[in-house]
Amino acid sequence: MEYDITKILEIIPHRYPMLLVDKILECTEQKVVGIKNCTINEPFFEGHFPGHPVMPGVLIVESMAQVGGFLLLKKVKNPKDKVVYFLKIDKVKFRKPVLPGDTIRMELSMLKYKQGLCIMAGKAYVDNTLVAQGEFTAKVVDK
User: Fold this and answer.
1) How many alpha carbons lie under 13 Å from residue 33 in its C-beta half-sphere?
2) Residues assigned a catalytic role
3) pLDDT for 70-107, tens place per residue?
4) What integer pLDDT is reported at residue 1 of this predicted model?
5) Nearest to 131 by CA among 44, 42, 38
6) With contact defined as beta carbons under 8 Å apart, do 140 and 79 qualify?
7) 101 vs 30, 45, 57, 68, 126, CA distance in Å?
8) End-to-end CA distance of the chain, in Å?
9) Residue 5: CB atoms within 10 Å
């Protein structure tokens, strides 16, 4: 089942300029796939780097974290009353730069889940090229 931006906004608390997911393509109990469309109008491209725009790696990681957070919040009752805190980000590797015009496809899989605490493995692709990957530990908490 796909989720458009309207449905995403019903689940995760992020808003502009920190909302870094545009669509959820797939969401099961153990896996989520989301996309982020990167346009030249993104505010971070103006200063990172002038004349050579590249999406900051930390924002690629944040985008993966938001997609993973969507999966976690889909598992709980009353997601509007909850927030996902990331406790640890591990084994992050950046493989290729993300440029204006790219669409990032993020795939996160649940490795472990117990009482709102989870570990997920994430990979980010542009076309079929791996651009980033990492492991995320997060917990769902009350707002």
Assistant:
1) 7
2) 48
3) 999 999 999 999 999 999 999 999 999 999 999 999 99
4) 87
5) 38
6) no
7) 30, 11, 16, 23, 10
8) 27
9) 12
